[in-house]
Amino acid sequence: MELASIGGTARGGVCRLALTDLDRRARDLVRCWLEQAGCAVRVDAIGNLFARRVGLDSSLPAVATGSHIDSQPTGGKFDGAYGVLAGLEVIRTLNDYRIETRAPVELCVWTNEEGSRFVPVMMGSGVYGGAFTLDHALSASDHDGVTVRQALNAIGYAGQAPAAVCDGAEAFGAYFEAHIEQGPVLEAAGAVIGVVTAALGQRWYDVTVTGQEAHAGPTPMELRRDALQATLRLVQAVDRIAREEAPHGRGTVGCMNVFPNSRNTIPGRVAFSVDLRHVDDAKLARMDEALHIAAGLLHHPGSIEVDLQEVVNFPATSFDASLVERVRRAAQAQNLANIDVVSGAGHDAVYTARVSPTAMIFVPCKGGISHNEIEDASPGDLEAGAQVLMQVVLETAGWQLRAR
Amino acid sequence: MELASIGGTARGGVCRLALTDLDRRARDLVRCWLEQAGCAVRVDAIGNLFARRVGLDSSLPAVATGSHIDSQPTGGKFDGAYGVLAGLEVIRTLNDYRIETRAPVELCVWTNEEGSRFVPVMMGSGVYGGAFTLDHALSASDHDGVTVRQALNAIGYAGQAPAAVCDGAEAFGAYFEAHIEQGPVLEAAGAVIGVVTAALGQRWYDVTVTGQEAHAGPTPMELRRDALQATLRLVQAVDRIAREEAPHGRGTVGCMNVFPNSRNTIPGRVAFSVDLRHVDDAKLARMDEALHIAAGLLHHPGSIEVDLQEVVNFPATSFDASLVERVRRAAQAQNLANIDVVSGAGHDAVYTARVSPTAMIFVPCKGGISHNEIEDASPGDLEAGAQVLMQVVLETAGWQLRAR
User: Fold this and answer.
1) Phi and psi (nearest 5°) for A90?
2) Quick one: which H or E segment has residue A341?
3) ipTM of the complex model
4) Which 3 state secondary structure label does DSSP give B302?
5) Measured between CB atoms, which of B204, B256, B345 is closest to A258?
6) Is B261 exposed, middle or buried, given 0-12, 13-18 or 19+ CB atoms closer than 10 A?
7) What pTM was computed for the model?
8) Which site from A230, A334, B200, B264 is most exposed, i.e. has the minimal number of CB atoms within 10 Å?
9) Contact B216 A277 (CB under 8 A)
10) Contact yes or no for B252 and A184 at CB 8 A
């Protein structure tokens, strides 16, 4: 709640965009807590923070956890922040119980996960995992033309450590990320822990359907080339295509603009977005094919014309099977109702998975609502997730009680 | 073409909004032409122009014709202007052939038919026919807060003559209006003359469908309350309802706005317009009922909620049967391919019909396209319409050649 007060909104949410002064204050606070917990904090060239609690064997790669503390413009208290603070609580608990781990334990605070101010999203972890270059990320600019490079300098978080594993940053022995689910599945199933086996692949498209603008009054139904009525079938196809690949298919038309958007004019053009997701790249390819077939069936040159452009193609991510199993066993060992789930959204863990064995732990959020100021989660569920995180970190790092 | 040069656009259209300085210049030009043709021009309190060519019997009510010369912002050369200039050509032809009519012939130029700058639309004829009061019309203001009263004074067209028949303006013995069809029916039928039997009634609605905004990724298909997917069925119903009342039913969703209109968010709310039209008020009432039933079927409190509000209810207009028959016979007498049609759009004639026997003559426009800078019509078709207008005016007014 103290962290949430930085950028806290009247409606109980958080507005803390990446690399703003509010982000600096949040980083300073978390950094202070981590240093008070005895960690050595370093900052890399994209502004990611890494707080290390030393292990008995400094030659072992770290067992890492973390998430992000930037938010959406109308975001909530828990998205990202929970994963960071759950990791802090693990470190404090290790201290409280005088536990020494064999491998170092490292807490990561990734830069600009949300992508609200700067794209690409999941920027810090993307550089770390090699999804794009450090230069590409540093050159991104916001609506006011401020670059990431300038913003990092302005808030004092342009660090010296290498940011990408391919440039010498340390790969982790394991990376665990605790996160609110941001969806309704756990709540619907009555589960406390989501054992995240994978993250959905995503394919995004821009579609334009063109007909003929005409007067709503004088134009009989049979002489119309109504772009909106034609579009409906394709929008319905997006829903059907996703349902045909249940349970892990998703199909969404989130954005639609009608032209000229006048009450008594038959629409001449409709532009809309399509977002298809699936955990299985082969099935996602099949959904892509079905979308192209549906678009092709609608396309009649000179009458109704359909233009379909892919704008994002992001493969599915399978998390590390043995770490996923470790999360599942930890939930079972604590008698926490758990189910296997997939992550429908992107997370920093999707990028760390490219260079380090990775798994995620989901806890429910109220009503499945996230990216919203009313985002909420129960203390009991958040504690359960932190307990599971604690157990998998201990088990993976190896541990013993410190001699008195 | 000379009139079209006032407000002419680079793309060949016309932008001559009501009561602007361009409208003044167009009025001045037409008024000059009418005075040169020997007419006495008077201006009424809403700025309508009436140009009278005297008849042999001044006690008879005038046989009137006309239309408007204001345009849409991206309008064409023919919408309205054709009816005014066809009437001017009739008057010039009467002069050329030294024809004396028994009843006076009057050319009307109605103020603000388009309604682009000031609402209500069909303002001048609406006041004339008593659809709304003179004060209501004079008090309407544009986006800059300029009222019709101020704009009329500014361009020097705030006249003294009474504007409404109920306030003492003269009712016509008959009113004929020639107009481009603004639809594709004549062209599709290969007809030159549309004998307009009626104008469609119109019922307009604002509809809002509310579901639940949620993330496109983490929300499985079966747990969604997607307002857009729900809306599709209602939009399709609008089309179906109109087709079930063929050939004179029309149903259009012209305007649609999706909220929050974000690519990876399931729409939580969709607002859209519905425009239903029919020439038969009983059938229009049946369409209204079908729309309410479709909306009711979609409405599930707490899941998908539908709000349906009627915003316009405009009854159908039947034109005067004997004048309509006169138009039909005139077309036949000149061997002009003709069909009976209904007017899908509103016209000044719809309001004159409230106080004077009225009929309309349609001629084709290219591709049925109107309210568009590329609006076009062939000289031959325009001439054919003027010939029919000449014949019905003569026949209705009574005539003889002037003694030399």
Assistant:
1) -60, -45
2) strand A338-343
3) 0.87
4) coil
5) B256
6) middle
7) 0.87
8) A334
9) yes
10) no
